Amino acid sequence: MEIFNYSGPDFDIYGDQQSDPLVLDDGPWPAPVATEPLDVEVEVPGSKSITNRELVLSALANAPSTLRHPLHARDTQLMSEAVRQLGATVDEEDGGGRYGPNWVITPAEELEGGVTIDCGLAGNVMRFVPPMASLALGPVTFDGDKAAQKRPMSGTIQALRDLGVDVNDDGRGRLPFSMYGTGAVEGGELEIDASASSQFVSGLLLSAPRFEKGLTLRHTGSSVPSLPHIEMTLESLRNRGVDARMIDERTWGVEPGPISGIDMTIEPDLSNAAPFMLATVVAGGEVRIPNWPDETTQVGDLLREILPKFGAQVSVAADGLLTCRVERGIIQGGSFEGFTMDFADAGGELVPNIAAVCAFASSESRLTGIGHLRGHETDRVKALATELTAVGSDVDELDEALVIRPAQLHGAEWKCYADHRMATSGALVGLAVEGIALDDVQSTSKTLPQFVELWEGMLAGDTSAPVEVDAPTNGFLTTEL
Ligand SMILES: O=C(O)C1=C[C@@H](OP(=O)(O)O)[C@@H](O)[C@H](O)C1
Ligand SMILES: C=C(OP(=O)(O)O)C(=O)O
């Protein structure tokens, strides 16, 4: 394993991204230990997945759109920069949101090529923007962080070729690659192997209304992970007047037609509610999350079913205030039994935090169906096994599963591998274990730049302090697995 030292300039969210392996010179972040039960409200910023879908659809629409309370984090800044580069205008407008301005997006008359898109480490950018770029005239190059160059891209690259787009890559099915858009795509019927990522499907469906014949997309591989995210894509299209539907478990259809402009409020990111809700299992007490949606396609909604497995009581009031309560957390001598849960279809975003808290269970836990997490920001199966083992946990890393048995945990450095969810997982372990230090807590800026402020506020019982919106934004690869 290598550690790199950072000596370059700070990352500028609207400027050039620094894609080399870096370490911020702040040093490791000592994860705070909880000393008393929690009693706090935590307002979670907007959903990454919804914000990014709406940025793409707004840029492809036939009229301007207003996105209220969008997520302002590295992944959405990269997406907004990508749609700008392809010709859309993204303006800021004060919407009174706590975490930054609204976005008003005016679509381009015609999408323009001749640009290089930085995907950072954002799966959404690397899988959603290339199909959009096939509608632009001219060459478009895609690149990203070193860690991003390991993420699967063959589903997108092969699909573009099958749609008649000229793509140049080095044959590895990874970033970087270049493509040459001719300004139009015929579309029609297409087969794809999306077993490595549902985002291959979502990316194609988002641009499909602008294909001459729309798209009938059929998945040919084993199973597609993260099905709720595909439902989210279909729903986003339908909200803009597009005829988009699931034909069967592995086939989706989008009719050609206009994408209308929209004025909408982005839901809070429920996957980012996970560390705060799970904190009650470790520290005991109560965490309240406002604005929990009544109905949603976000996988994070599964937390309402998962937290009770940890002994938590979860309820949502009529005004959308979710309450998650644990009478006796781990630090008060409480306990909960391990469990088995399959994450093949949904919940991959939640697994790292869940695995971390399973390390405190009184019996074995088995988290199965998680092979596709090996292609996420890092190989999350290996990273979790490595870091949990480093703090004393008894973990088996299987091909597609983690088995976690009770053990005495101890302090150690917790490596984040540029992965926001590895960082929040280390913070969860640190609530009950002294001496956990995260090597790269800044990796949380991928989707939650306010993480440190909110986490420390949670422990102090008050998260109302103003938080820096333009927090340093990274995705810096500090340590390789
Ligand atoms: O469509 C989306 O917004 C996402 C789909 C999922 O990807 P995979 O299908 O690659 O797991 C999820 O893990 C990712 O965080 C966001
Ligand atoms: C897998 C994730 O991100 P991405 O959108 O980069 O795939 C995630 O946020 O957990």
TrEMBL record:
Reaction catalysed by this enzyme: 3-phosphoshikimate + phosphoenolpyruvate = 5-O-(1-carboxyvinyl)-3-phosphoshikimate + phosphate
Keywords for this protein: Amino-acid biosynthesis, Aromatic amino acid biosynthesis, Cytoplasm, Transferase
This protein's record includes keyword Ion transport: no
Subcellular locations according to the entry: Cytoplasm
Record-listed 3-phosphoshikimate binding positions: K48, S49, R53, S197, S198, Q199, S226, E349, H376
Domain of life: Bacteria
Family label: Belongs to the EPSP synthase family.
All residue ranges annotated as the Enolpyruvate transferase domain in the record: 36-453
Coiled-coil zones: none
Keyword Amino-acid biosynthesis: yes
Classification via HAMAP family: EPSP_synth
Pfam families: EPSP_synthase (PF00275)
InterPro entries referenced in this protein's UniProt entry, alphabetically: Enolpyruvate_Tfrase_dom (IPR001986), Enolpyruvate_Tfrase_sf (IPR036968), EPSP_synthase (IPR006264), EPSP_synthase_CS (IPR023193), RNA3'P_cycl/enolpyr_Trfase_a/b (IPR013792)
SUPFAM superfamilies for the chain: EPT/RTPC-like
EC number: 2.5.1.19
Name of the protein described by the UniProt record: 3-phosphoshikimate 1-carboxyvinyltransferase
Enzyme class, first EC level, given as a word: transferase
Pathway: Metabolic intermediate biosynthesis; chorismate biosynthesis; chorismate from D-erythrose 4-phosphate and phosphoenolpyruvate: step 6/7
Gene3D superfamilies linked to this entry: Enolpyruvate transferase domain
Chain residues that bind phosphoenolpyruvate: K48, G123, R151, Q199, R380, R421, K446
